[in-house]
Write a structure and sequence with these properties.
By secondary structure, the chain is an all-alpha fold. It contains 14 helices and 4 strands.
Length: 322
Amino acid sequence: MIDALFTLAMLVFGTIALVKGADWFIDGAADLARDLGVSALVIGVLLVGLEPEEMLTAAIASGRGAPMLAVGNVIGANVTIITAALGLSALLCPLLIDRSVRRQALLATLVSILPVGLLFFGVVTQLEGVLLLLLFIGYTLFLFRTDRAAIKRLTEAEDDEDDEDDQEQSQRTGPHWRPILLTFGGLAAMALGGPTIVEGALRLTQSIGLSQGAVGATIVSLGTGAEMIALGISAARKKQPAILVGGILGSFAYNLLVTLGLAAAIRPLPINFQQIAIMLPAMIAAHLALLALVWYGKIPRWIGGLLIGAYVAYLLAVVLPL
């Protein structure tokens, strides 16, 4: 009885942390983007895409000699964030995608080609892992350099500050901490809520006798994408699709470059293609669908429903053979 109540408390706490964290992040990121002269899209790509818990999970799995756990988590999380997070967001409120997102979508696709190709080759060596990490660094730097609108806004902001007197600058210094605290506080809350939900869900599934394979294929990938799902709900309510889509693109690239790269750098990752025969094509198909939607420029509710249906079909395809 006590264990059941503790498990329920973990699920409730994790859910609240995710939802509140997503709200804080959306509010803070928009203001922070304006203060720094960086577009909301870039903020979404960099801050939402960076998932230390993903990286840590894969690193530990690789270090303990469980390469397929790391690989499966990367692929499953990418499928989840595109189908479940984006689908649920569009189902709640149709999304309009700005044309500026197209460049970031193409960039995320280009940098993802190499890691996907390595998965098909059957092994990711330590040298290839280091190469993926370096590629992510280049991707991040290029992302900033190509955000021309951000550079223009930053220059204008600096010029405005030069024209202000010391008193006005003093008055403006204080409020700038609020978006920073909201943004990073939201990220921290989501990072705390996600693993808490995972642990609670694992306890729940173990108590009802679900196999570890089924838990790994469903609960773990859903848990690692839980913060993106919460962010999608918040972004839909606050009408900030650029942050959501940017976060999904950034997370997709981050998982393939940093999470997979670090795991391989620690220990070479032999790939059992039979175990990812369904997951890998599903991930590729999901990303191509995202590209098509970015070019279409909007995601109506019925497409959101199709994405949710695709996620359910993916889960069934992965779980039933187990």
